[in-house]
Fold each of these.
Amino acid sequence: MSGRLRRSHRARYCAGLPHDRETLGRRIRLQMHPRAAFKPVPENSTKRPKPKPKSKPKPNLTGAEGLRARTPGHRDSKAAGWLYAARPRDCQPPGNSNSTQRDCLGASTSRSTPAAPRQDGSTRPCRTAPEACNSVKDQDERAPKPPDYKQHKMGAEDYSPPSTDIITLTRHVLTEGFKRREESAASGDLTILLSSLQTTCKFIESNVRKASLINLIGAAGNTNVQGEDQKKLDVLSNEIMINALRASGKTAVLVSEEDDEAIFVGEKEEGGTFESTKGKYCVVFDPLDGSSNIDAGVNIGTIFGIYLVKDGSKGTLEDVLRPGREMVAAGYCMYGSSANLVLTTGNGVNGYTLDNQIGEFILTHPNIRLPNRGKIYSINEGNSMYYHEPVLKYLDSIKFPKGEGAKPYSARYIGSMVADVHRTLLYGGIFGYPDDKKSKSGKLRMLYEAFPMALLTEQAGGLATTGTERILDIQPTSIHQRCPVFLGSKEDVQDLEVTLDVRPARNTTGSSNRRPTGI
């Protein structure tokens, strides 16, 4: 008899089913020769083999019975002619025997040892593990049950309902406006202007997300005043910003990275006049910073700064060419996995995240503060061959620190100022774009890139310098003037100044008298 048949016989024996010689012989013939399952009948005999009964559909069982019925090897007795229970090959049959056999757990046992009584009162040996040696009822009781929500009372630690008292950007700006109004009798013009700016950010964000779907990627075929190739999104974002700020009725002068000259609101131009009225604010902006990364899907953003027109002025270029410390508000909106707008109105820095479902910027990062020291530096080391020696010396000091237990800084550089500064504001460290032998005045524009980011950094507790003087103290001479930029955590920037041999004293109210370092 083959091993397979012996196992089948042993399983039948364990199950307590009939296993007489005639039945067993018929089963053996069926296994070896299916057509010889029944003995041949002589031609003159009136007996005919009984037809094999048709199998009935399996009942839809649940609980332990359903699990057992679905177990491989478990078959219906009427359908197949025998019940093959799902048991281990070496299951110990009932009764006494002198042979030694492995039990269900693999331990060597003697067949002469009587089987342990089961919980249901029988003495059949276990099929699998001891915990399975229970009746169907016991197994159903042990089966995992869904939680009874009627009996379970959720506590404060189990359930936290979403906040219904959300603070939107408009609400937050209005609150700050009321505080300023009580202090200095200010009007609500700045609130209206900021509301217009957030609308433009939503519009630009919508186009950035579907740029690949509506053919807004790629170059527009033009170059701006900086000599850079304009992208389609650059041109579109610039038009969105200009039209929205004009329509607000609160602006007098606009300065954009994409336009050669400043835009004076209300001036006549060919074809008629603008339908907007002049306001008392000047807005400088980069409509889409990091445009070289647009097609790659890297984080990009809009940077803006706001000046108040001087008393008695109707909005001239002199109202814009002023130090960054005179800005009344500055911020940026970063377009990435979410749209994040970071804003300061001179009373700290707050971050807002756009909720597309309700169409509002929600306050998610209140009172952003830079740590005193970070662990990340963000500088384009691809230009190291052009850097001046003091800058290279500083980079070596943070990459190869001296001292026991000192750890090097991690490098993170995205290539979009908005994204790099945003990370620096949240995690600390230092961001830098120095002047070098190739770009002797630096690369970043002072008025609408360096000034807004420097104001945000200092309002968050950090420092911003060109390497020789405080950025916010510089008097610009042209709207597209450039300057080197270093900004970030206070101690990191101070270490940079020490390495660059800059005097440690800082003038936070007026122009700086520190001597230049030649970088």
Note: Residues 90 and 102 are 6 Å apart (CA to CA).
Amino acid sequence: MPQTKSHYQSTKDILKNHRLKKVVQMIKNKKGNITEILNSVGFNSLSSFSKSFKSIFDISPSKDRKLD
């Protein structure tokens, strides 16, 4: 799992970080298709998830996936 950026995080960023970690965990555990997973944790689209992922982990989801 990617590491979060080390800096002060607002409450909003902490919640976003938690949601992102949940998505990563669910994807790795194959808990449904990607759209179902994203919707279940509150992301309305793949693009909003990707943007949030990159802002928290400083890497795109596709690049992170290639590292695994």
Note: The mean pLDDT is 81.
